[in-house]
Amino acid sequence: MELSLSQWALALLLLAVPLLYECSATFRYFCKMGFYNGWILTLAVLVIPLCALRGRSVGNMKIIRFMLHHVKYLYGIRIEVRGLEHFNLPEPFVVVSNHQSSLDLLGMMEVLPDRCVPIAKKELMYMGSVGLACWLGGIIFINRKKTDDAIGVMSETAQTMLRDNVRVWVFPEGTRNHNGSMLPFKRGAFHLAVQAQVPVIPIVMSSYHDFYSKKERRFTTGRCLIRVLAPMPTRGLGPEAVPELTERVRQAMLEAFDSLSGELSPGRDPPAPQ
């Protein structure tokens, strides 16, 4: 039976893809990232009807966490968590975490406390099924381009935290940082904690460099360490204390980041000071 040109092309493609996957780390990187993003979109579609039964609620984060928890196994990423006992607080609190890539979602789902929702940029709300799933999960959206709107949302969030015993998760760097350290922190999360008079709990995820690098187009299996640091109280602090609180938390997180990353790569040079 004679094959057509399109059939020959399809056959060559089916042969080329596994060959490229085995021989090219760059091709493998794009395949893995493409599947990662596509699978998250698919899981969001599955989550939506389950969450819709309850409506928009922070309680839906349990469903979202359950649906995403297996993804680390698909990529052979082993996650070790330390310090979970620091979450044993009856009161609301603000979680602050370093932000390295979209893979942070895996670490977040590993340690997300009960009744905790992330604060995310408003653009995420318009990302199809993912945006709807996030909205149903009670995720708080802010418009970073409009300062007045962001301040208003933070003020409302402070009231919601105290009224409904809600915890929030913030990436104070404001954007993903691939350089192996931490960017300067924005102060919004710390203003929120001081306004609500609730503790700040820092969470540090070790460097992904051993198994992931966007710059090098590399994505292999590996290990990630996560440490939950001791709560830092804000009771009695006013707005004037926010800059010092921000820097104190950042320094504690930098020390933990260097320590955790050093455990995974003892010979790795420390990152350049920020």
Task: Give a structural overview.
The protein is of the alpha/beta class and 274 residues long. The protein has helices at residues 5-23, 25-52, 61-68, 71-74, 104-111, 128-136, 147-164, 188-196, 242-264; strands at 77-82, 94-97, 116-121, 140-142, 167-170, 200-205, 212-213, 218-219, 222-228. The strands form 2 sheets. A 7-stranded mixed beta sheet has the order 1-9-6-2-5-3-4, sandwiched between helices. It has a two-stranded antiparallel ribbon with strand order 7-8.
Keywords:
274 residues; alpha/beta; two-stranded antiparallel ribbon; 46% helix; 15% strand; globular
Please describe the biggest sheet, giving its number of strands, its sense, and whether it closes into a barrel. 7 strands, mixed
Secondary-structure element pattern, one letter each = HHHHEEHEHEHEHEEEEH
Question: Would you tell me the overall average pLDDT?
Answer: 89
Our estimate of the beta-strand percent is 5-15%
In terms of structural class, how would the helical and strand content be classed? alpha/beta
